[in-house]
Write a structure and sequence with these properties.
5-stranded antiparallel sheet, 18 strands, binds 1-deoxynojirimycin
């Protein structure tokens, strides 16, 4: 096997904004394989230890070789990073540490030239406390128009020294912080993330300007952060429960989450999206009850919504099947398409979730406890976790709809559990008084090569320390190994692009621990969740997460098979 060169570095010159779209297919997003880039941790081009936009551009050949249809970039805006960039100082600029708007335009052109669409993150529920508007709000008087862009209220108790309600923020601690003049402002996340008032027409108008700003630059779509939180009923007295219910339990009546009026906002956005050719797509991050998710995916609204069920599902056939049935059906309900997510920047990587004892039932809970112990307890079975992770990936890649992949999962990366307290950047750890470790462990910069100081990520040490074991997972190593996880992802994405056509049917297996479905073209996908090998249907195995033996699929594995005469991919 020849050693591939380092992922080629290409920097296009003379790029112009508003590039031609490679394709005008308005439905590209329905079946897209989207690769999530966490920009500060992807590739650093200027040697400061922080990933940047030109770093992304330099890795376009890698992204093209992976075979993804689109990238989604987590926020790259100016930010003090109180919440990893989800605290935005200016929605229409690039963080100077990450580059310039010109760099962004060059990146967009390079991605488009490679046939890859660009989705960016929009964070409309809250700005940062360094946003010009918030500075103006603090400087302005109570009841002023500047304060009305946010949610300011008088406190309760003598001298208003108590917050207006006892709501807690998602990261822990009170959801209200007192301003210097004694009023309180609402922040459902960190105090550095004041919630915007979506009843204010200027706020509404400004986000339309932002969407147009990026749409005009050639961005193909938007991932909408906390899409379920914008509309609020803040009529006083606040009668909602003292503690916020889990957003997933909201039914439309809670004052803060998943209110029906939120869809008026998205209907307005949809009109703007549809002015483009092809229309800009949007995908909602809506943490709502699964039965209400389709509202966000309505064609008159955002059009697509993340399905996060598999982030919670245990490694067992029944839980996967429930989720699949629900979402394939959901697609029909809202004329959208299903979405599949196994990892992202907010959760413990799926290779790790599936390698911990208890993964069959409550992998997320076990993984959170494991993180808190710095990875000591319970013992992680790395190989088992990776076997199951690739099996799950092949399963989701064979399903109808679009799939969202998170940077590093194609390398089989595990979560980094032993970051020291001093290195943690996520507010979750401190705001929860250490009862949650936070999300830094999946945000550690990815390894490109085997060399220190940062495995090809930067010329300098990375902004979050990378463990030594990252070297084994480096892209350079995996390029040279035909059996690597990276090569499996490449082959899977290539087959998927070639094979996927509308249609899906279960092929009921006698063994309830086996999931077997077919797609048009006699494409079968079989996943074995049981502890014993199982027989595969006759045909050509075109891809498998573990090589079948004597026509039998090993435990914790998925195989793709083409059945029928002369079956070839
Ligand atoms: C969801 C994002 O994915 C997460 O990273 C962020 O902390 C919250 N929204 C708040 O913006």
């Amino acid at each position: 096997m020849s050693t591939s060169p380092d992922p080629v570095t290409v920097r296009p010159t003379g790029a112009t904004p508003v590039p031609d779209q490679a394709t005008h297919d308005p439905d590209w997003w329905r079946t897209a394989a989207v690769y999530q880039i966490y920009p500060r941790s992807f590739a650093d081009s200027n040697g400061d230890g922080l990933g940047d936009i030109t770093g992304v551009t330099s890795r376009v050949p890698y992204l093209a070789s992976l075979g993804v249809d689109a990238v989604w970039l987590s926020p790259f805006y100016p930010s003090a990073l109180a919440d990893g960039g989800y605290d935005v100082d200016d929605y229409r600029a690039v963080d100077p540490r990450l580059g310039t708007l010109e760099d962004f335009d060059e990146m967009t052109v390079a991605l488009h030239d490679a046939g890859i669409k660009v989705i960016i993150d929009i964070v409309p529920n809250h700005s940062s406390n360094r946003h010009r508007w918030f500075a103006e709000a603090l400087a302005a008087a109570k009841g002023s128009p500047a304060r009305d862009r946010y949610i300011f209220r008088d406190g309760t108790g003598p001298d208003g020294a108590h917050p207006p309600s006892d709501w807690e923020s998602i990261f822990g601690g009170p959801a209200w912080t007192r301003a210097p003049d004694g009023q309180w402002y609402l922040h459902m996340f960190a105090p550095e993330q004041p919630d915007l008032n979506w009843n204010n027409p200027e706020v509404r108008q400004d986000f339309l300007t932002t969407l147009r700003f990026w749409g005009d630059r050639g961005v193909d779509g938007f991932r909408i952060d906390v899409a379920h939180g914008l509309a609020k009923d803040l009529t006083e007295p606040f009668t909602a429960s003292a503690h916020l219910p889990d957003p997933a339990e909201a039914d439309g009546s809670h004052p803060l989450w998943d209110r029906d009026e939120v869809h008026d906002i998205y209907a307005e956005w949809r009109k703007l999206f549809d002015e483009y050719d092809p229309p800009r797509m949007a995908v909602a991050e809506a943490c709502v009850h699964p039965t209400r998710r389709h509202r966000y995916a309505h064609p008159d609204g955002l059009g697509q919504a993340f399905n996060f069920d598999l982030l919670e599902a245990g490694w067992n056939a029944a839980q996967f099947r429930i989720s699949i049935d629900r979402h394939v059906e959901d697609g029909g309900m809202s004329a959208t398409s299903a979405t599949w997510v196994l990892s992202n920047h907010d959760v413990v990587r799926h290779a790790t979730r599936y390698g911990l004892p208890g993964a069959e039932k409550q992998p997320r809970e076990v993984a959170m406890a494991w993180l808190l112990s710095n990875g000591d307890q319970p013992r992680l079975d790395r190989d088992l976790g990776l076997r199951r992770a690739t099996a799950a990936t092949l399963l989701t890649l064979a399903l109808p709809g679009s799939v969202y992949l998170y940077q590093g999962e194609e390398l089989g990366l595990h979560e980094v559990a032993d970051l020291s307290e001093g290195d943690l950047q996520d507010p979750e750890f401190h705001r929860s008084n250490g009862s949650r470790k936070g999300r830094d462990g999946c945000r550690v910069p990815i390894p490109w090569t085997n060399e220190k100081p940062s495995f090809g990520f930067s010329e300098k040490a990375a902004h979050l320390p990378q463990p030594d074991w990252f070297a084994q997972h480096s892209i350079r190593n995996q390029e040279a190994d035909p059996d690597s996880t990276l090569q499996l992802y490449r082959r899977a994405l290539a087959f998927r692009a070639k094979l996927a056509r509308p249609g899906f049917a279960w092929y009921d297996d006698e063994n309830p621990a086996v999931l077997h479905f077919t797609r048009p073209g006699r494409w079968h996908c079989v996943t074995n969740f049981s502890p014993e090998p199982v027989a595969l249907p006759e045909g050509t195995v075109i891809l498998a997460s573990a090589e079948p033996v004597d026509g039998r699929l090993k435990p914790d594995a998925t195989a793709w098979i083409l059945t029928g005469r002369g079956a070839t991919a």
